[in-house]
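User: quick one, fold this
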Amino acid sequence: MPFSILIISHYFAWSFKDVREGLTHRYFGLYSNIARYVLTHGEAVYWYSVREQKLLRIFEGKIYSSRYLVMPMAVIRSLRELHIRRKPIIIILDYPHSFLGIKHFPLYVITLITLHIFRLFKLAFIIVDNMDPPVEHALELKKKISILEKILWIFLNNIVFGFDFIIFLSQSYRVYHKLYYKLDYTKTDVCPLGSFPSKIPYKEVSLKPPLKVLILGRIEEWIGLKNLSVLINDLEHEGIKVKLIVIDKSAPNSLKENSIEVINTYIDYSDLVKLLAGAHVLLLLRPRSLHHLLTVRATLLDYMMTGRPILYLRSLGSKEKIVDDLKGCYSFVSLKEVSSILKQLYTNMSVINELGKKIREYAEKHFNYEVLALNLLKKIVCRLRSRYIRG
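Assistant:
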């Protein structure tokens, strides 16, 4: 079924080099792949970058960028131009990241109302990619939320949840919205985060000591490099040679520890991938751990695609087809448990590549963004067809 598409997201991410943080990780993985499938059928793709206030038109392999446009004007212009093609129009709204704050509230509400008008006249089919429930996400980050903030988000939620199809990152998010927001399962689905097997090639790692452990995040703030030094010293006393590679832009330069290498300058995503491939073990310490701006769930999937044993904090809550019962993925509560797991891997380093292959195979099967995008597109087409049949 031929159709055109408009994407509204925080950033535009069309190529691998556009991946900078967790949002662009999904945009490149999911949105750009959906757009490419649409383009292969000779249809049009429009993409509005909210942060840059630019409307991009993609035709026949070329990208044309407009000058600055506020969101309502960009949406009206793109929908008017797409309507001329006389094909169904699909809109993917990246919510809540397409809302930039209270200063943009009037324009955002006008945009949502405009989308509803097009929807009511069956001129557009609107999909909401609800990556983070905004009220709950704000509470998680700030531990509290003002009454005004809560009212604002509930107001926006009530508008947005009236659209045609709501996509969640996980089944738990979907169930939560069913129970708390009364969102019917018939208008929701799940499309998890993924990764890029074509961009992250699997390579076996050299099994020579020391055991290289890569850690991403605000380690100095949350754990403390001194605590990691104690962990390393305890292992060395038992003859276990371990080298920690810590990526933390807030870490000091003053650390003098041969077994800990600190990278506190920004590294781009392609360099991160190389560092992942050069490590024996990958470690996640905090639920909100960041590689500069990469979210932990995006990082976890890249870890798995790299094909390395993974140590992750149990409170990460990764129970939905990610690491449960998968050998080579170890959950822990304290650094003492980390020490025990590292000893186990060091004494039998030959198992690292064996475990890594299974983790990689699992990731390719479940978290290939190209496949996830195609599967989601098929679901969208089915719903679009049923809508036109009913109409």
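User: anything notable?
Assistant: Residues 122 and 388 are 9 Å apart (CA to CA).
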